[in-house]
Fold this protein.
Amino acid sequence: MLLTTWGKGKVEQGGVHYVKRNFLAGRLPTTVGQANAEVLNWCRTTAGQRRHGTTKVQPLWRFETTERAHLQPLPPTPYDLALWKQVRVHRDCYVAFEQSFYSVPFRLIGQAVRVRGGSREVRIYTQDYALAATHPRAQRPGERHTHPDHLPPEKLPGLLLNRTACQQTAATIGAATTMVVEDWLADPAVDRLPTVGRLLRLGERYGAERLEAACARARRFDDQSYATIKRILVQGLDLAPAPVPAPVPPARAFVRTAADLLGHLFGGVA
């Protein structure tokens, strides 16, 4: 279908479809390319050659002698048409735009902001159009784009947490802590990475030596949950002597033989 600068409705002429709009008297529908060519010819031969009422010179002569030299080249990419929306910043410092999430400085939590979403970039402005954040446009629903400096300082450790860093930190603490971390990270059903982060932060609070002792004690009692390790540290049980395992009672020997016990059931036959 070819569009023109006129009309309403569609017409067909010579096998070509046109869109018409309130045709001027005596004019037939035309294509965009044909209309542009006619307008350019009109500017060069009619409008551009007559004396302008304000400048008193021909517009085409003014353009060629003065204006053309000041023209700048077109940008390498076409203008990026954008979609504007007004949204509110959530408590997690993100805004939702077109089913994806973009971080905003935490000072704007709870406030309404303006989001300009282009094909390549998303810009977030305050209500008075001050630029607050810039992100690349998400390529799929649910994608999350984050600038670390947008989040409160206390949230950064969780954001920067990763498996390799946790394993390396656990290795510097001790063997028991390393085994606890490896067991948790090996869970195929539950993502235990946040719990590992909390466990390692216990070492910052109580010291690496006490955390290692608490992990060793928890493993000795076959209960290496986070709650148990933290309770050991809180109650100071890691500082207590290691429990002595209870002695295993000797095997009890039977005084009487099987014939003495069961012989009467078989007529006294051993």
Remarks:
- The longest strand covers residues 83-88.
- Residues 10-69 form one domain.
- Strands lie at 10-13, 16-19, 83-88, 94-97, 100-103, 112-117, 121-125, 131-136, 144-145.
- The CA atoms of residues 52 and 58 lie 6 Å apart.
